[in-house]
Amino acid sequence: MDASSNIVAEIGLLIYPNCQLAAIYGLTDLFRIAGDWPQQKNCTERRPCIRVSHWGSPPDVRQGAANRLVCLWDSYAEQPHDLSYIIAPPSIVMPEDMLQMPAEAEWLTDRHAEGSKICSVCAGAFVLAESGLIDGRRVTTHWAFADLLSRRFPKIDAAAQDMVLDDGDILTAGGILAWTDLGLTLVDRLMGPSAMLATAKFLLIDPPGRQQLPYHTFNPRFDHGDEAIVRVQHHVHAHAADQQSVRDLATVAKLGERTFLRKFTKCTGLRPTQYVQQVRVAKAREMLETTQRPVDQISWQVGYRDPAAFRKVFLRLTGMVPQSYRQRFGVGS
User: Is the dihedral of CA 293, 295, 299, 302 positive or negative?
Assistant: First the structure.
């Protein structure tokens, strides 16, 4: 039997400038393991396998040839290409420092037109965004990059709470190590849940289904240039446990309530009540991670007199109840 008869799909991995090679080689290994490990030792029937190929500019590319991407490596080099999926991996530099990649964007667009499904991981979404293929789509990237992705490509709906979003012909994954989640998602789709679970168990990684919310860190903006709003932000961080109304905060800003509310929302991206909740939950997360204080005591210390209300807000912002969060991230866990 020809080896190619067992190939269920070819997955192309895009190697672009400053991409995370650990993801390239990790995905290559994951897809190989998916075909090898789950099979029974006494099984004589040949199991399906995933073909993997690496794509990028030729090593000896010369000026004028930069728009030509070629296959750099192939697990079944003797077979003609039939790319079912293409993955743009994470970047090892921040999105602000990523180069523009018109050649890679054009290549993704051409392959998508030929029927390939296009995927990205973390900052790989910025490469995918250059192609225009995700305009008008809801996609995910690393939670720390979602705002920049939305600002740079305003037609995109960035949903940073999701680890993997499957939009049929477009799949996007969030964190820098979310290539494991995407890889297992594709194994599940191509080879079934049994092969996916066996691969996850062998690699000692969680099956797909995680969210980014538990990993999200509140990073407020102070560089918007409005001194009155910065003054209120500093006040909120210093007095988060105090009960303060919008009127109280407007007084700190020395502004009318309506003007304050409009300016605060524009500068921070959050309404004052939402901002206070983020600050309080950030302080609660730190206590859950580093102390063994009772949850009800933490609730009181960060400004919630009703522990049930605290648990509700904490669950909404982190995706976990406080006790589960402590079990997962606490230093004594």
Answer: positive
